[in-house]
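[User] Could I get a sequence and C-alpha cells?

[Assistant]
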Amino acid sequence: MKKLLTTLVLSAVLAASVNAANKVNGQSKAAAQTDHKTMLMKDMRTMLDAMEQIQRGGLYSSTEDMKAGVKKLQGTLKSLESEEVKWILPKDQVYAYQFAQKSASMLRLYSNDMIVSIEAGRMDDALEDYNQLLKQCTSCHIRIRNW
C-alpha cells in the first residue's frame, strides 16, 4: 500500500511538473513572438526614418545625411533577411517570405549603389537609387500588406 501511495504521489508530482513546464514554454513562445513583432515593427519605423533622412539629404544637397540614412537603412535589413520576418508576414500568403527576402536583397543592392553614386558625385544616379528604394518599399507594402 505504501509503495502504491508513493508511486501515485510521484506520478502526480511528475505530471504537475511536466504540465507546468509546458505552460512556461507556451508562454515563452508567445512572449518571443511578441518580442519579434515588436523588434520588426521598430525596424520598419527605423527604415521609414532612414528613407526620410536620405530624401532630406538629397533635397538639401547633404551627402553626409544621405550616407547616414543609407547606413541606418542597411542596419535594419538583417531583420528582413532573417527568418524572424515571418512573425509579421501574413500566414495566408505563401509567397510573402520569399518576396520579403527579395525586397531586402534589392534594398541592399540599391542602397550600396547609392553610396557608390554619392561618392562619385553622381547625385542624379543617387536620387534614382532613392527612387528605386522607395519603389521596393511600396511594392512590398502593396503586395504583402494588401494596400
